[in-house]
C-alpha cells in the first residue's frame, strides 16, 4: 500500500474513521513504528505500534476477503504484524540502538506487553470507526 493510499484510504465510502484527522495516524504510525523497529529503538513499543496498525488494516480492509492475499485477504497484514511483534519477544539484537543504550528489551514479558498494547490500541482504533449510513430500502 502506498503512502497516498494510506492517507486517502479512510475517506473512501464505508472505510472512514472518526474524527477525520485519523487518516494521517496510520501512515505516521506505520512509518515511525517501522523505522524504530528497523533501528531497534524501544523495540517492544515499536513492535506494538506495527502490530496495532496491521491489526486495524487486517480487520477493517482485508478480513471480509478471507485469508489469502491473492483474494485481497488479511494474510500479508497478519505476517507483517506478527513479524514485527516477534522482535518484542526475541529482542532487537546487539546491533541496535537499544543495545547501544544498554537496554535489555526482549523476552516473554516484553513480548506479551507489546501484544497486549497492540491489541488494545488497535481495538480502540477499530471501535472509533464511523459506520456508513445504511442505504434506504427501495420497496
Tell me the layout of helices and strands.
Blueprint: H1 3-8, H2 24-39, H3 43-62, H4 75-90, H5 97-100, H6 108-127
Helix pairs in contact: 2-3, 3-4, 3-6, 4-6
- Mind summarizing the main beta sheet? none
Distance between the termini: 40 Å
Question: How many discrete domains?
Answer: 1
SSE sequence, one letter per element: HHHHHH
The fraction of residues assigned to DSSP E strands is under 5%
How many individual β-strands? Answer: 0
Can you put this structure into words, describing what you see?
This protein is mainly alpha-helical. It has helices at 3-8, 24-39, 43-62, 75-90, 97-100, 108-127. It is elongated and about 65 Å long. The chain has one domain (30-127). The protein has six helices and no strands.
Précis, in short:
The chain is an all-alpha fold. It is built from six helices and no strands.
What labels describe this entry?
elongated, 6 helices, 139 residues, mainly alpha
